[in-house]
Design brief:
8 helices; globular; alpha/beta; 19% strand; two-stranded parallel sheet; 6-stranded mixed beta sheet
C-alpha cells in the first residue's frame, strides 16, 4: 500500500518585488528574515518533496488553472522602482512536479470545479517569495482565480485530497497582502499608514489568528473597498479549505510600507 501523502504546512506570505532587493542587500527587515527562515524550515525541518504556489497575480475569471510543466521560468511582471532607488530585474527557475500537478486538476474536477492545465510560468507573485526563501524544490504554480470564495475553499479541499493521495510531503504557499493600496505609495513617507488600512489589517489578523478566516467575507464593504486587499483575500479562503480552517500563527507584520499590509502566517493542517 502506497504511503499517504501529507500537506505539511501552509503559508500566507508577502510578495512585493522589493523583498528581493532587501534580501539581495542583506537587509534585516522582518519580512525577509521570516521568509528565509520559512525556506530553511521547508527544506531542512519539514523535508518537503514539493511546493504548490498560488500566485495572487494569476487571476483568470473562467476557471482555476495549474501549470503542469517540468520546469518553470519566471517572467518580469512588476514595476521597477524609480532610478534613484535602484532598478533591478530578477529571474528564477524551478523544477516542476507534473504528476502531482495533473492530480490536482483531476481532484478539482472531481470536486465539481472547473480546473484546467495552462503553461504559465512564475510571475513575481509566486517567484518573489520563493526566491527570497531560497527553496529549490519541485514547484507547481496554480492560479488564484476570481472564482467565488466558496469555490476557492473547495479548491483548497481538492488540493489537500490530491496531496494526501500522492504519497508526497507538500507545502502550500499562498502569497498576498492585506491592505494593498499601491496608489497611496510614496517613497518619502513610507513609514505612514492610512487609518482604514490599519483597521482592515487588524481585523483580518484577528480573524485569521483565531481560525475564522472565512469570516473575512463578512467584513464591512466600505472598509474592504478602502483597503483593496490583494486578490480579495482569496489566499486565506484557499488555505482554509486546504487546512480544515486552521488558525494562522502570525510570524511577522509590517503595515507601513507603501500602504501595503505585509503579513506572514503559518498554518498547520487540521485532521478531518
Amino acid at each position: 500500500m502506497a504511503a499517504k501523502g501529507e500537506l505539511l504546512k501552509s503559508y500566507f506570505v508577502p510578495n512585493g518585488s522589493y523583498l528581493m532587493e532587501l534580501a539581495e542587500d542583506g537587509s534585516s527587515a522582518s519580512q525577509v528574515q521570516v521568509l528565509q527562515a520559512i525556506g530553511k524550515a521547508i527544506e531542512q525541518d519539514l523535508k518537503a518533496d514539493a511546493i504548490i504556489v498560488a500566485s495572487p497575480h494569476w487571476q483568470p475569471k473562467s476557471a482555476f488553472f495549474v501549470d503542469c510543466g517540468g520546469i518553470h521560468e519566471s517572467f518580469h511582471d512588476y514595476v521597477l522602482r524609480p532610478a534613484e532607488f535602484g532598478r533591478r530585474f530578477y529571474t528564477h527557475v524551478l523544477p516542476g512536479a507534473p504528476q502531482l500537478a495533473r492530480a490536482l486538476i483531476e481532484a478539482g474536477n472531481a470536486e465539481g470545479l472547473t480546473v484546467k492545465e495552462k503553461t504559465y510560468g512564475l510571475d513575481h507573485g509566486a517567484f518573489c517569495p520563493l526566491k527570497v526563501m531560497g527553496v529549490k524544490l519541485p514547484t507547481i504554480p496554480i492560479s488564484m482565480s476570481q472564482r467565488s470564495f466558496d469555490e476557492t475553499v473547495r479548491w483548497g479541499k481538492a488540493i489537500r485530497k490530491a496531496v494526501e493521495q500522492s504519497g508526497l510531503r507538500v507545502v502550500l504557499v499562498a502569497p498576498g497582502n492585506l491592505c494593498h493600496r499601491l496608489d497611496l505609495r510614496d517613497e518619502n513617507v513610507s513609514e505612514t499608514y492610512f487609518p482604514e488600512g490599519e483597521q482592515f489589517d487588524r481585523l483580518v489578523v484577528d480573524l485569521v489568528s483565531s481560525g475564522r478566516s472565512r469570516e473575512i467575507a463578512n467584513m464591512d464593504r466600505k472598509l474592504w473597498e478602502a483597503a483593496a486587499p490583494e486578490a480579495d483575500c482569496r489566499p486565506f479562503f484557499l488555505i482554509a479549505g486546504a487546512t480544515g480552517d486552521a488558525a494562522g500563527q502570525l510570524l511577522q507584520y509590517q503595515g507601513a510600507i507603501y500602504s501595503v499590509g505585509d503579513a506572514t502566517f503559518a498554518f498547520n493542517t487540521v485532521s478531518v
